[in-house]
Amino acid sequence: MDATDYLNGVSGMALRYLACLTLRQYRRPLTVGGLVSAIEADGWPIAGQPNKTLADALRWELKKKRIIRVGRGRYAYGKVPRSTEWWMRNELARIRSELFAGTLADTDAATRELRCESGESARGCAPMVVEHMVVERMDKGAGAICAEILPTLPTWFGFPDANEAYVKTADANTTFVAFDGSGRAVGLTTITRFGEYSADVHLMAVLPDLHRSGIGRQMLNAAEDWLRAAGVEYLQVKTLSASASDAGYAKTRAFYAAVGFRELEEFPELWDPSNPALQLIKRL
């Protein structure tokens, strides 16, 4: 597959791979519209009329039984050999890197941000790409990295006392840190544990110019793999509820929905009345 074939959005083989892997990530049936939303939320614009393009791609995967129909207009992950899944992931990583590295080379970052903030959909806001990124687990000692990243995100982390508490928690608990090819920390995710079967995404932060580049998803994938191996069955996260209007946290909720979290309960006064908390949960 040539990455230049997808300059106007993914279709064909790449979209078939994305559909399979997205359904695997969600672990539950999705409609065509739900799949479109999940794929585009991950930074992949779909060519043409997204619902129609995806429906065409699904027909091929249904024949191969890598995707199965489980009801009227609902699809689920079927059976994909481990080696084939590995190939899919690597091909998509290659396409993302080549495609967006090329299309963004002559696009000013401030212009991209203006386009996105003005209300243009994800289909017009291609994500940045982090070359040679790795995610490393730090069981302790990530406080200094946390202290460097949080001040770059005043929309989400604008309270010094709260930031100090985040730094202490990152220093004392398992944290997954994303590093770019130069060794710079570009994101972190701190996990806290509650008993034997549950855990909490205590903190997730990515440098603002690298939002929608897949860093958050990769850190979360690494954390979930680690938690499953430890026997953890449920992962929760708390964020600002939609009942408090905030554009930054609307993006946060959209991200967690895209990676499989579901709203469980709102706590209007857990933090304070002006900051109602929303609890989301995901079964691992």
Question: What attributes does this structure have?
Answer:
284 residues, alpha+beta, 2 domains, 7-stranded mixed β-sheet, 3-stranded antiparallel β-sheet, 42% helix, globular
In short:
This protein is of the alpha+beta class. The protein is 42% helix and 24% strand.
Q: Mind explaining what this structure looks like?
A:
This protein is of the alpha+beta class. The protein has two domains: 3-104, Arc Repressor Mutant, subunit A (Orthogonal Bundle), CATH 1.10.10; 134-283, Aminopeptidase (3-Layer(aba) Sandwich), CATH 3.40.630. Helix content is 42%, strand content 24%. The strands form two sheets. The chain has a seven-stranded mixed β-sheet with strand order 4-5-6-7-8-10-9, with helices on both faces. It has a three-stranded antiparallel β-sheet with strand order 1-3-2. β7, α8 (215-229) and β8 (234-240) form a beta-alpha-beta unit. α1 crosses α4 (82-104) and α2 (32-41) crosses α3 (50-64). The longest helix is centred in the first third of the chain and has 23 residues, at 82-104. The radius of gyration is 19 Å and the shape is globular. The two termini are 32 Å apart. The model is unreliable at 102-126 (pLDDT under 50).
The appropriate CATH architecture of the largest domain is 3-Layer(aba) Sandwich
Shape: globular
Rg of Cα set: 19 Å
Report the total helices: 9
Q: In percent, how much strand structure appears in the residues?
A: 15-25%
Tell me the series of helices and strands, N- to C-terminal: HEHHEEHHEHHEEEHEHEE
CATH superfamily of the largest domain: Gcn5-related N-acetyltransferase (GNAT)
- Give the assembly state of these chains: single chain
Structural class category: alpha+beta
How many strands, which pairing sense, and closed or not: the largest β-sheet?
7 strands, mixed
Low-confidence runs: 102-126
Distance between the termini: 32 Å
Q: What is the fold named in CATH at topology level of the largest domain?
A: Aminopeptidase
Strands of the widest sheet, in order across it, are 4-5-6-7-8-10-9
Number of beta-strand segments? 10
Can you identify the CATH class of the largest domain? Alpha Beta
Mean pLDDT: 83
